[in-house]
Specification:
CATH class of one domain: Alpha Beta
Strand order of the largest sheet: 2-1-4-3
Keywords: Initiation factor, Membrane, Protein biosynthesis, Transmembrane, Transmembrane helix
CATH superfamily of one domain: Translation initiation factor 3 (IF-3), C-terminal domain
Radius of gyration: 42 Å
Mean pLDDT: 77
Structural class: alpha/beta
InterPro entries: T_IF-3_C_sf, T_IF-3_N_sf, Translation_initiation_fac_3, Translation_initiation_fac_3_C, Translation_initiation_fac_3_N
Number of strands: 8
CATH architecture of one domain: 2-Layer Sandwich
Protein name: Translation initiation factor IF-3
Order of helices and strands: HEEHEEHEHEHEE
Strand content: 15-25%
Organism: Rapeseed phyllody phytoplasma
Number of helices: 5
Largest sheet: 4 strands, mixed
CATH topology of one domain: Translation Initiation Factor IF3
Distance between the termini: 123 Å
Pfam families: IF3_C, IF3_N
Amino acid sequence: MQKTFSVSYFREEKCSLGVSLFLFYFLFLPCFIFMLCHFISFHFYKITLNLKEVLNIKINKFKKSSNSDLYNENIPQGKYLIIDEKGEQLGVFDQKEALKLSEQKEIDIVVVNADASPMVARLMNYQKHRYNQQKKLREAKKKTQIIVLKEIRLNPTIDKNDLNTKIKQAQKFLKQGDKVKVSMRFRGRMINNFQLGETVFKQVMQDLKNLSQIETPLKLQGNQLTAVLSPLK
């Protein structure tokens, strides 16, 4: 028997198909996209977080601490040759034994050679040790400090305000560790005012004596009076 389809049947099928497409495009598809985006973003966040933690671990591992000393609870696992306060060797201990010994003697334990085998640690007052280290660094820095020769120029008829400004400049240079060359040039007939210029010069030297010592004494070369001052040690 041949099946016949009415117009109303096709209309119902068309309407049903339209409803299905509407639900798919405007309900199911947006929900699916939203869930997919949420899934991707969540896992991307976890991957990023894990990567950040890994990078932080690597950075912290190689980052130099401002205080690189290994002492007390910071000493790593391993064997230690322990030296007491008098410099005598007490023997080889593991980390726990070394810390226990430190507690018994009520003194700090500091790793002084982490590259040796076994590592070398010493019983000492850590704060005093740290102070001595910083003191040595300051002294070494002073020895390697580059000394610069600065210059202030005067003239025999300089007024009081300008003279005070020059003296303050020289004081600043000396305080920062630089040498100071003081010079005065006599132009033309100013050489006739040599005694006046010498008086000004000596006043400057007097005002700077608390910060300096004479390295090159006052001398006249041609028409120029000069002296070199260095900071007090």
